Amino acid sequence: MEAVLQFSPFLLAGLRVTIALSILSVMVAVALGLLGAWAKLSGSRRARRIAELYTTLVRGVPDLVLMLLLYFGGQMALNRIGAATGLWGYVELDAFTAGFLAIGFIFGSYMTETFRGALLAIPRGQIEAGIAVGMGRLTLFRRIIWPQLVRYALPSFTNIWLSLMKTTALVSVMGLEDLVYNGYAAGKTAHQPFTFMFVVLVTYLILTSISDMGLRWLDRRYSSHLHQA
């Protein structure tokens, strides 16, 4: 444990990167998920096809392969667009930015199905009643759609968030100094790889446990709110 205490600032720095990566990734995933759900339920055939292609592609390719493709391919695409248009010069994506964009892109496909299912679960009659009494789109969304969307999506959202948080460990292969990367480096330096990987394991277990408890509490809160309504 003396070696762990000695490298604790190094491990904490990696932990902060992991938490920031998780939060930014889920924000991107939620945005893409809402957009994808809207596309799948829209009247536009083109939008539905694009959303279907997106979810099919992500579900059929390993996460690590997609992350590496987006990391290297995304940078190449940006530089080619910049060179062709003259809007910007050479762009180099750092591992952190590429990591959260890639993870957000991957889990946005799962969020798409989550939000699509949640939207379909909302009784159509309630939406029609809101329109009938003169609610605008924003009021309708805030008063009727959003509370029920959160309620129906939360169980699946919880599972996706826990999987996303664990998937952030993959960014260590791109050289990002997250919890896994720093834990491995510290273990190698101290000649105690098992000890440091065990510390990383426990840290992830604590993070996922806290997240699970928080989201379950939120689920109970929204459930009671809907029952009271």
Ranges with pLDDT <50 over ≥5 residues? none
Counting DSSP H or I runs of 4 or more residues, the number of helices is 9
**Which structural class is indicated by helix and strand composition?**
mainly alpha
Report the portion of residues in β strands.
Answer: under 5%
Order of helices and strands: HHHHHHHHH
Main features:
mainly alpha, single chain, 229 residues, MetI-like fold, 84% helix
Task: Give a quick rundown of the structure.
The chain has helices at about 1-5, 10-40, 45-60, 65-85, 95-120, 125-130, 135-165, 180-190, 195-229.
Task: Explain what you see.
With 229 residues, the chain is mainly alpha-helical. The chain has a single domain, classed as MetI-like fold, CATH 1.10.3720. 84% of the residues lie in helices and 0% in strands. It contains nine helices and no strands. The protein is flat, with a radius of gyration of 21 Å. The termini are far apart. The model has no long low-confidence stretch (mean pLDDT 88).
List the helices and strands and how they pair.
Layout: H1 2-6, H2 8-41, H3 45-60, H4 63-85, H5 95-121, H6 124-132, H7 137-167, H8 179-190, H9 193-228
Helix pairs in contact: 2-3, 2-5, 2-8, 3-5, 4-5, 5-7, 6-7, 7-9, 8-9
